[in-house]
Design a protein that fits this description.
69% of the residues lie in helices and 7% in strands.
């Protein structure tokens, strides 16, 4: 089962994939970059008491000026179709913004306040480059993965909604079918009594027998057509509680906040301090990260409403402590040491919200995957249980009731029936009609092949083309290993819905010369990667891209089939 936490990503491929995705710059980029630009990457005006506040004003104006061309780039990347071209456009944009931003900051400081800000230009530009590429890429990776995961969960929820609608229809049909059966039994009793009240001859009994046969065929037709076709869309009700507001601020993975903060601060630290100072600062930041994580993880589980506020308080205290350590190590930095007070909580908030958003999307996907696999089998069982009374009633009418009619007609054809003959016929047909109304047992349903039951459950969602060779048929239909085959196919169909919302699939089941059973399920779609991890079954299983199709292949060893045969 896939984990609900964030996935580990390889940095360079992840950047390349997201930079060329056409969705690199989003509203979330703006939301994340605004506080980072105006609270962290701030030009502090020298020689003034309010130098940091003035720097915030200059940084805010720079953000507004740069946001306009970035907005144009965001529109352009959505219209471009070539992945490489989009990635190059994004990289150039980030580089230009990182270089131009310190210059704009300095310009606004001079124009608005008649001063200048401190810092080495190389460090300022280097910090902006690291933050621009790191921040925007982090947001883009989380956003892209969230959108992909959300789309997968929506496709699963859509299919599950269709299946639940179909299941509801089955329940209604089952109730209606029982009413129909009772009505037919009442009609047949009335027709039989009317026939017996008149002169009873061969033709009269034969006509009644034909009525019984017609009723039997009617019930068989109802059973054959009782699997409903649900609406194209049926909303899936979700009752799971979601966190809101500050409740979403959960503990971040240990050392992540410290690493992000040090990455953003590295160019500045390397220009104002020696190696010893940088090492001490790094150790201090990581210790603060560990301490903050320990405090937040030590909170009782029932602390829900206040957890977000405690999160902010803990990280603000960590930021203040970092500012004090920085002032002790670098006493000449002046007002710049106020930045950790905002920077560390800000980094923690960005990471926590990103991880929380992605985690909920993954949780929805995992829950929907599990529910869809379960619902398909449950639907098939419900359909068969709904059909069982119809099959039972049709069989009883055709066998016992019509059989009594045939015997009675033969006796009537030989001689006029006596009062005892009529009473016996009434008694026997009453017993048979009573049996029609008795609910059918489920033993027949339970012994039907697992694969056939499961495939029936997918009929409202997908068109299935199934090919099973003669040698594999016995394993699929009768062996105890059949549930494993059913599980493999069910997993493949769930993946077909997850990765493309496919409405059709091909299922091929065959055996080779050695007796191994091969299951292959193919459907139109596109995987995020050429080969995807898949949970193991009894044998080797692969999920991969084959041209325009997603394919799941599994091999069940002959030893397993023999052991369960």
């Amino acid at each position: 089962m896939a984990r609900s936490g964030p996935r580990a990503v390889n940095v360079v491929p992840a950047y390349w994939d997201t930079a060329g995705s056409g969705r690199f710059f989003t509203r979330w980029s703006a939301v994340a970059s605004l506080p980072v630009s105006t609270l962290l990457l701030v030009p502090v005006v020298q020689g003034t008491r309010d130098g940091y506040v003035q720097g915030i004003a200059a940084a805010l104006l720079s953000w507004v000026v740069l946001a306009l061309p970035v907005l144009v780039v965001a529109g352009a990347e959505r219209r471009m179709r070539d992945h490489r071209s989009r990635a190059i456009l994004v990289a150039v944009t980030l580089l230009v913004v990182a270089i131009v931003r310190p210059i704009l900051n300095e310009t606004f400081v001079h124009v608005l306040f008649g001063g200048r800000s401190g810092g080495v230009w190389a460090a300022r530009i280097g910090t902006n480059i690291i933050v621009a590429f790191g921040l925007f890429t982090l947001v883009a990776i989380i956003t892209t993965q969230y959108q992909q995961t959300r789309a997968t969960a929506d496709r699963l929820a859509h299919a599950l909604g269709r299946l639940e609608a179909a299941t509801g229809q089955v329940v209604t049909d089952d109730r209606d079918a029982r009413l129909v059966i009772r009505g037919i039994v009442a009609e047949l009793r009335a027709e039989r009594d009317a026939m017996l009240a008149r002169d009873v001859d061969f033709d009269a009994v034969r006509d009644f027998s034909e009525r019984v046969r017609a009723a039997s065929h009617r019930l068989e037709e109802m059973a054959a057509g009782s699997a409903p076709v649900p609406a194209l869309w049926a909303p899936l009700s979700r009752t799971a509680r979601r966190r809101h507001g500050l409740e979403r601020l959960q503990p971040t993975p240990l050392l992540w906040v410290g690493a992000l903060y040090l990455l953003m601060s590295a160019p500045y630290l390397l220009t104002v301090g020696d190696v010893f100072d940088v090492v001490i600062a790094g150790v201090a930041i990581f210790l603060l990260d560990l301490a903050a994580g320990a405090v937040l993880r030590a909170l009782p589980g029932d602390v829900r409403r206040g957890r977000g506020a405690i999160f902010l308080l803990v990280w603000m205290l960590a930021g203040m402590t970092a500012a004090v350590v920085g002032r002790l190590l670098l006493p000449d930095t002046g007002a710049l040491m106020i930045i950790p007070v905002f920077a560390m909580p800000l980094a923690a908030i960005v990471l926590s919200l990103a991880i929380d958003t992605y985690r909920w999307a993954r949780t929805d996907e995992v829950d929907a995957t599990r529910e869809l696999a379960r619902a398909a089998v449950d639907f098939a069982d419900r359909v068969r249980r709904a059909q069982a009374p119809l099959h039972h009633a049709a069989s009883t009418l055709h066998g016992r009731v019509q059989g009594r009619c045939v015997i009675f007609a033969a006796r009537v054809d030989e001689h006029a029936p006596t009062a005892d003959d009529i009473a016996q016929f009434r008694l026997e047909t009453d017993r048979a009609l009573d049996e029609v109304l008795i609910p059918a047992g489920t033993s027949e349903i339970d012994t039907v092949g697992a694969l056939r039951r499961m495939l029936a459950g997918w009929e409202p969602i997908m068109a299935l083309e199934t090919r099973i060779d003669d040698a594999a048929a016995s394993a699929v239909d009768g062996a105890d290993a059949a549930p494993i085959v059913s599980e493999v196919v069910n997993e493949a169909l769930v993946n077909a819905v997850k990765h493309s919302g496919a409405r059709a699939a091909r299922i091929d089941i065959s055996t080779d010369a050695g007796g191994d059973l091969h299951v292959r399920v193919a459907s139109a779609g596109e995987l995020p990667r050429a080969v995807m991890p898949i949970r193991p079954f009894a044998g080797r299983t692969l999920l991969y891209q084959d041209g325009a199709e997603v394919v799941l292949e599994s091999t069940l060893p002959a030893t397993l089939i023999a052991a369960h045969a």
